[in-house]
Each structure stands twice: as structure tokens, then as C-alpha cells.
Design goal:
mainly alpha, Growth Hormone, Chain: A
Length: 395
Amino acid sequence: MKTFKFQSFVLVLIAFILGFSEFLIVGILDDLGTQFNVPVATVGYLVTIFAMVYAVSTPLITIMIGKYNLFWDLMVMMAIFTFGNILSFVATNFVFLAISRVVTAMVAGVSISLGLTFAGYIAPMSKRGWLLSWVFSGFSIASVVGVPLGTWISTQFGWRISFLTVIVISIMTMGLVFFSLPRDFKQKESTISGQLALLKDHKIQVGMLLPMFNLAAIYVFYTYLRPIITNQLHFSVQMLTILLGVFGISNIIGNRVSGLISEGPGLRAMPFVYISQLILMALMPLVFHYSWLGAVLLFLVIFTMPLINSPIQLFFLSIAEKKYPQSIVLASSLNSIFSNFGIALGSATGGIIVSHLSLNGVGPGGAVYALVSLGLVLWLNHMTQKGLSSDQNSL
């Protein structure tokens, strides 16, 4: 039991450092813009670039490495991830920084997919939802501790030291992975076409779009969270760090609730989540006139962001285990792949809105994607219920 708990901690730490590196840009947008003399909206596209590379490279690399030992796959991916952050640390111009983020993004998605695969491998069935929700919470903890810490370090010592912090924690994490996780883990061998068979499943096809539009809705405004807090809600730089921490706590609570949802109603609960999300985002232009009311609204919307994680992850894994055992790693990666397509879509949409309208438009923009999410989850629940009815009739 102690071994399982320590392995669980290591998997959460992997998610934490991946989240710290990915989300750090949100907290240091202004500092990077000043350093490289580029508009904040342009720096915001680093989020889009990272997410797009993450989403495109993850399935390709996942399929290529799926036949090898997954322990060594994870070690190699984490080493490249660390190297990418070293490149960010020494970046001399904005283009160099963008290239370094591409290197990091190429392996970040594969790393978390392997981490989630290990979670499914080491956890007893009764602990799966619990461990998956904690691994996803690693990203939330990065928001609570990593992003505010990185923002504070950036304002006090410079943004390069923020990346240096990521590098040090990455090296420590690799050491813990080396000494804790099982080294004999491989999935069922298959051809590339055999692994891709998973993507022909209609429920998988609809399910993949759900995390995409879920995060597209959030990242329309979340990419510009720092300017919203300081310019729109008129909080001080000191309050910025505190509020980022509070919003991170909201995200952690959401992840823990996500685990409970996965053990209970699952995806059947999500329509109520997206209706709430839609209403809250539509109210943003009105509520942003009041500092503390706006902060409460942001807290509530950010709470809804991770609620889909555990239910959709278990949904993908259950289908793969029953029908496509050769595609477990690919199934584990779907949530993170399409979440990052969503981050790219949302951050790009937010950039267009901020450039051509103002920060007031990001809420209604996100509400449109929340409406799409609502339609998708209703469709997926209908397909699942129809499948259950067919299975019962065939007995």
C-alpha cells in the first residue's frame, strides 16, 4: 500500500511539473511582452502554439512508442521535456522562445498520457477514479502553487528564474520516476492500424470533441486571466498572485469533485455543468464592472473547468479495455490531446476577441463553446444509453 501511495505521488508530480511548464506562460505574459517588445496578445499565442503542437504530436509519438517498454518511453519523454525548458531558460528572442515551447510541447502530451496509463496499470479497480482525479489534480496544483510561484519569481527575479525552477523540479521528478515506477510495463503489441482502430468507434469520436470544446470555452478568457484581473477587475499585482492561487484551489476542488462524479452519475451529470458554465460566461461583461463579484464569478467558472476529466477518462479507458486493448496508451492520451486542441482554439479565439473588441467580449465568446459542449454531452449520453438498451435486449 505504501508503494502504491508513493507511486501515486510520483504520477501527480509528473502532472504538476507538466502543468507548471504549460501554464506558466499565463502568469508571465506581461513580463515576456516587455522583455521581447511584443504585444501581450502576441505572447498569448505561445499558449496556442504550445497547445497545437501538443495536440498534433501526442497521438503520432504515442502510436510510434506504444510497442516499446513504457517505463523507458516515459524517461526519454521527460528528458526531452527538461531540455525544452532549458532552451526556454536561455532564449534570447521571442522566436527562440517559441521554438523552445514547441520542443517542450512535443513530448508533454506523451508524458502525461504515459502517466495516466501507469495510473490505470498500478491502481486497483476501486481506486482508479480516485487516482485519475488526483493525477488531473496535479495540473490544478500547478495552478495553485506553480503558476502563482512562477509569477512571483518572475516579478521578483525575472522570468528566466521561473523556467529554472521548472528545470530543477523536472530533474527531481525524473529521479523519482526512475526509482518508483514498474519497469516491465508494455501494452498489447499491435500494428499502427490496429491501434488506430480505436478512433473508428463512434462514441470515441463524439467523446473526443467534449474535452476540446470544454477547454475552448474556458481558454477564451483564461489565457488573458492576468490582464482581466489587473486591468478589468482593477486588482493590484500583489492581489494577482493571491487570486491566481485562489483560482487554482477552485480548480483542485473541481478535480476532486470530478473524481466523485466519475464514481457516481458520470457523464450524465455534465449537462447541468455546461448549462451553469454558459450562464456564468454570458454574465461576465456585466459582472466585470464589480471587482469582487467578478472574482467570485471567475472562481465558479474555473471550478467547472476540470469536472469532465475523470468521467471522460474512465469512459475512454473502459471502451479501450473492452474492445481495443492494443490501444490503451492512445485511449489514455485522448483527453489531453483534445483538451489541448481546445486550449488552442480557445486561446486563438480569445486573441481575436481581445485584439478586435476588448476583454469584455471573452465571456460571451466562451459561452458559445459551452453551448457546443452541452450539445455534445447530450448526444454522447444518448448514444451510451442507446448502446446499453441494445446490450440488454440482446441478452
